[in-house]
Amino acid sequence: MNDGALSAHDLVVLRQWEASQRGALSTWTIFDHPRDFPNEFVARRFESDKTNPEPAPTMDLIAAHELEELRECFRFAGLTPLGRMDGDQPQIVEAWI
After folding, report:
1. What's the pLDDT tens digit per position in 44-88?
2. Average per-residue pLDDT in the chain?
3. What is the Cα–Cα distance from 72 to 25, expressed in whole angstroms?
4. Distances (CA, A) of 80 to 14, 25, 32, 76, 94
5. Do residues 20 and 3 touch, judged by C-beta distance below 8 A?
6. Widest Cα–Cα separation across the chain
7. How far apart are CA 87 and CA 24, in angstroms?
């Protein structure tokens, strides 16, 4: 899930900062009980930049039993929610930027 003993909030803040230092855009997509985590909501981080404008998945993820736990983490980190997009997979709840 994360580096050492970082809290979920600290992981989000750190990854957002690291991406910005590289000129990349970091987004977190929340999935509703994906196959690899059938008992949890999972937020996975994606990253894009000028050379790779299509968001690519990273190894970062945060799992939680309640959706509100993830939302609270992202709000506390200063991120903003984006609604679902046309063509999103059915298990995608929302993305945060």
Report:
1. 999 999 999 999 999 999 999 999 999 999 999 999 999 888 999
2. 93
3. 21
4. 16, 13, 19, 10, 10
5. no
6. 37
7. 24
